[in-house]
Write the structure tokens for this entry.
Amino acid sequence: YKKIEKFILFMKKSLILLVYVFGFFCPEYLYSQLLYNNGAPIYISTGAIVRSRGAVNNENSGSIQNFGNLTIDSTFTNDANASGDGIWFVSGDWINNFIYLAGSGSVFLEGNNQTIGGTSSTTFYNLTLQGSGIKSINQNINISNVIVLNDRELNLNNFTLFIENSNISAITRTTGFISNDLSGKLKSLLTIKIQRLIQNRL
């Protein structure tokens, strides 16, 4: 058992070293069919480009720090810690079940019909909707800087989208729009400020 534990520890250390080395010495590409992180710290350095041809599962106290470009051709499931100022390109669903710290990073949803969900609410810094189909939320989400709808529909279902940025340009679009079911809500600091201003004048 001790030999097995040592091997697992070696593989964890090797994984973070592998990603860092590719980002530092060869900032072009690092590919994988499936990225399953079973507790290792993964660091994607500035300038590194990492692509998973399948899903990315971050589990068991693992961490993904993305300061480069991470492309995920399927679903991203975070059961541990994810963070960084980098760019996330996701073609499947975004499932956050624990901690995601956006920093000044950007998330692009560029697949077909996609869902933002999980047991934990996600706060995005920048969120951009691309690709095709309808993007839906199955959990409350926050936007701390900008959400770019482009030509996509964002369905809130029965959840809340809260815009923390009070600038009027915090929501941009071409023909895209936000829809909801009976109890879905769009809230923003700009709306709150306007409401308070109106109340103060009454």
The two ends are 73 Å apart (CA to CA). The mean pLDDT is 85. Residues 2-25 form the longest helix (24 residues). The longest strand covers residues 122-129.
